[in-house]
Design brief:
Strand order of the largest sheet: 1-5-6-4-2-3
Mean pLDDT: 80
Radius of gyration: 16 Å
Distance between the termini: 37 Å
Helix content: 25-40%
Number of strands: 6
Amino acid sequence: MENRSGFGGLASLFSTLTVLGFARLSPVSAADSLPTITVRVYNYARVKAAILADAEREATRIFAAAGLETTWLECPLDAAEYETHPACHKPAGGADIVLRIVPPSMAKHLPFDHTKVGFAFISKAGRGGTLAVVFHHRVQQFARGEESAESLAIGRAAVHEIGHLLLRTEVHSSRGIMRGDWHGRDFRDATAILNFMPEQAEHLRTEVRERQAQFPAPAGHPNAKE
């Protein structure tokens, strides 16, 4: 069973370990590596490429402020796209995250809280998680038809949910990107400073380094060591 955290709760329909290929990895010790996360993006909502690119830039900025590097992989949604996304077929490293952006047609079948914009699955055993989801229709409601706001909303919601995974908690903070009480302006205001708290940033870096040390990126992975 998984805890359901972040902006909303939802029963899991996804087998995250299978998607990431952890069954093919074996724990090994490794020297300290750069704290880099790889986010495998499944854009089921078919968000426009330009909007998604801006969302990833916003998320990259927030993670960079916390001392993390971010690699983004656009992953296939069906068999027809399989051959055009070779990087997504490689076994995952320990710091790989799956981000799913889902449309109403997928979300309507799931018992989620309609006031939320996303969720993260966190292991009850305290091992952290690998799956974050953003509900596109809720993001659009906050964005009010503005593409720039949609990018901010997707990027910030994704960071919030991934933050839950890496912090290994469903608890929210009183300030910053991990707040639980969000308003439309938080998603639309490009000047808003929504970062991790210093202690959270330190925890993120430690968590990513531990994941990378336990499950180093395998050969062929974008962040594999030479």
